[in-house]
Amino acid sequence: MVARGQIISRIEKALSRSRVVALLGPRQSGKTTLARAIAQMHDAAFYDLEDSVDLAKLTLPREVLSSHRGLVVLDEIQFRPDLLPLLRVLADRKPLPAKFLILGSASPDVMRHASESLAGRLEFIEIQGFHLMETGIETQQDHWQRGGFPLSYLAQNDEDSFVWRESFIRTFLERDLRAFGFNASPHAMSRLWRMIAHSHGGQLNCSELGRSLGESSPTVRRHIEILAGVFMVRLLEPWHENLGKRLVKQPKIYVRDSGLLHTLLGVGSHDELHGHPKCGASWEGYCIEQLIQQHPDAAPYFWATQSGAELDLLLIKRGKRLGFEMKYSETPTTTKSMHVAIADLQLDKLTVVHPGSARFPLSEKIEAVPLASLLEV
């Protein structure tokens, strides 16, 4: 069993200050398990909105939900968006007899409807499967290879994990997208997703992807936004400010879960990954996801100039700028690009994240730090 005390503490803290808390993340990422654990701690009412029995209980939702005290959990809220205006009414009662924890797997609809209906009453928390600090730093190789989806990570061996991820991808494309209300062709989405995997860590070019797929650029963009909205890919936006330089303006694209990335690339083991052309890009995306999850209150960006200087990850946190460059080498060295990023972005320090175990300075403002050491802080 993997303990998830950190995320449970975040949810508990959010519930202590907000009337409604929305827990968002992909299917099979452990949201329901977390919510049931919290429900048990609070002796809360729990409704699974995909369960016909629970749906029947909510035939008269106002009468049922208004009768509860303490905490009420509503799982898969995207299947009943009509409940969100009712939650606004129930969350405005004085004194407040109950708070609500809602779970969702399709962020665009959930966030839009929830934000509109519950403005000023709602706090969002996003999860993305097991974090490395939950599985333990000694598991880094398996965690990177298999990804954070609980049933993938906890599989008996690499082969079982790979088979689970293949099944997840197939079910997601053939059933889940349709259940979320998206009508894109499973075959077209599968081809696009695999092309994104081969572009992992690169700048998004919808025109180029469209030519390869025989689709228009707007269609490709719309399909990518669908995959981003259901937490399968990340569009990392570029950081802009008036530096007097020509900056890259297109986002970078990543498959968010490293295990799914490796399945889409056909990589079944760490040995295969180590020799794969996308190994460095995979390490980059893996570190970026771990760091973003570790700093949920920071705004993530990348930075790049047209002349070639680049920074993999820039986190803006409480007015501070944290710069990270990912290198899949235990003996990374500095580059001209790093010094340009420090000067142009006015960074106090730049951290080079590597897979080894040693921490050492590379220059006055550049330090090489193992991923595990960064996450332990």
Cross-sheet strand order for the largest sheet: 9-10-11-12-14-13
CATH topology label of the largest domain? Arc Repressor Mutant, subunit A
Major sheet description:
6 strands, mixed
Task: Tell me the distance between the termini.
Answer: 23 Å
Quickly give the structural class. Answer: alpha/beta
Supply the CATH architecture of the largest domain. Orthogonal Bundle
Question: Which percent bin holds the helix content?
Answer: 40-55%
Q: Whole-number radius of gyration?
A: 22 Å
Q: Considering the protein shown, what is the CATH homologous superfamily of the largest domain?
A: Winged helix-like DNA-binding domain superfamily/Winged helix DNA-binding domain
Number of strands: 14
Q: What's the number of helices?
A: 18
Oligomer: single chain
Uncertain residue segments: none
The top-level CATH class of the largest domain is Mainly Alpha
The gist of it:
The protein has 377 residues and is an alpha/beta fold. It contains 18 helices and 14 strands.
Structure description:
This protein is an alpha/beta fold and 377 residues long. It folds into two domains: 5-126, P-loop containing nucleotide triphosphate hydrolases (Rossmann fold), CATH 3.40.50; 132-376, Winged helix-like DNA-binding domain superfamily/Winged helix DNA-binding domain (Arc Repressor Mutant, subunit A), CATH 1.10.10. It is built from 18 helices and 14 strands. It has helices at residues 5-17, 31-42, 52-57, 61-65, 83-91, 107-117, 132-135, 140-146, 150-153, 158-179, 186-198, 206-213, 217-229, 258-265, 270-274, 279-294, 336-345, 371-376; strands at 20-24, 45-48, 70-75, 98-104, 122-126, 202-203, 233-236, 252-255, 299-304, 310-317, 320-326, 350-354, 360-361, 366-370. Strands 9-10-11-12-14-13 form a six-stranded mixed sheet, with helices on both faces. Strands 2-3-4-1-5 form a five-stranded parallel sheet, sandwiched between helices. A three-stranded antiparallel sheet has the order 6-8-7. Strand 13 and strand 14 form a beta hairpin. The chain is globular. The model has no long low-confidence stretch (mean pLDDT 93).
